[in-house]
Amino acid sequence: MQVGAYWIIIYALAVAPMGMVSGLREANVLFAALISTFLLKEGFGDWHFVSACLVTFGLIVSRSRI
Questions:
Q1: First CA to last CA across the chain, in angstroms?
Q2: How crowded is residue 17: how many other Cβ atoms within 10 Å of its Cβ?
Q3: CA distance 20 to 8
Q4: What's the rounded Cα separation, in Å, for the pair 8 and 23?
Q5: pTM as predicted
Q6: Number of H helices and number of E strands within the chain?
C-alpha cells in the first residue's frame, strides 16, 4: 500500500504544482484526525482542534492567490 501511495504522489507531482501536492499530503493529518475521532471514538482535545485549524488555514492560504 505504501508503494502505491508513493507512486500516486510521484504522478501528482508530474501533473500538478508541487505546492498543491504537498498541501494535499498535509491534509492527510486532518483525515486521520477525523477517522480517529468518529470511527475509533478517540478524544479530539483542544490541541487537536488547534492543529486541525492551523493545517486548514495553511491549505486555504496556499490555495489563495494573494
A1: 37
A2: 11
A3: 14
A4: 14
A5: 0.60
A6: 4, 0
